[in-house]
Each structure stands twice: as C-alpha cells, then as structure tokens.
Amino acid sequence: MKLSLEERKVLYAYGCTNHHNTVTRLKWLTALAVDRTSKQKLLRLTQKIDHEISESNYQAFYFYIRSQMEEYFNARNHCRLVEMTTDYEEDIA
C-alpha cells in the first residue's frame, strides 16, 4: 500500500500497534475534522488502513511507518541544523 507523506504523518501521530484502535481513532478524527477536504483525506486513510491491511500484518506495517517517519524527521532536523550553521556569502566582483 502506498501512503503519502501527509498520511504517514497522521499515522505517526495518531496510530498505535493495535489495528482496531487505530481505525477507531482515525474515525474519530474524521468526525472531528471541520474542513471538508480534511474529512475526505482522513476517511480515505481510514478506509485504506481498514480494508487493505489485515490485522495480522498491521503491527509490522505500523513499525515500518514509524521507522520511516523517524528517519524523515531526523533528516529534516539535520538539514535545518546545516542551514542554520552555514554562512552563505556571495562574492560579487
């Protein structure tokens, strides 16, 4: 199953190792969302998780997503650190 970065961030923030609990949380988030496009995106993600991933495979999938997102956040923080410590000076001659 392919997930967008936005969907992975939602799973990283609101997912857990239990398939049923994650689907229930996503349904509650969908109900609480105010924006129509946000509701549609959350509902689509909930349906993907509920229908495309079996409960037996979900835990491995969840840990894979967690590790990917931790690598993403570490790389993003590293890039920000490099940008903050690098002086960009152009020589105009």
How would you describe this structure to a colleague?
The protein is an all-alpha fold and 93 residues long. It contains 4 helices and no strands. The chain has helices at 5-14, 19-32, 36-52, 55-85. α1 packs across α4 (55-85) and α2 (19-32) packs antiparallel against α3. It is elongated, with a radius of gyration of 18 Å.
Q: What structural category arises from helix and sheet content?
A: mainly alpha
Tally of contiguous helical segments: 4
Portion in beta strands: under 5%
- Characterize the main sheet: none
Distance between the termini: 53 Å
CA-based gyration radius = 18 Å
Compute the average pLDDT.
90
Query: What is the tally of beta strands?
Result: 0
* Shape by Cα distribution: elongated
Oligomer: single chain
Could you estimate the helical fraction of the residues in percent?
over 70%
Q: Note poorly predicted spans.
A: none
SSE arrangement, N to C: HHHH
Blueprint of the fold:
Layout: H1 5-14, H2 19-32, H3 36-52, H4 55-85
Helix pairs in contact: 1-4, 2-3
Task: Tell me briefly what this model is.
By secondary structure, the protein is mostly helical. It has helices at about 5-15, 20-30, 35-50, 55-85. It has 4 helices and no strands.
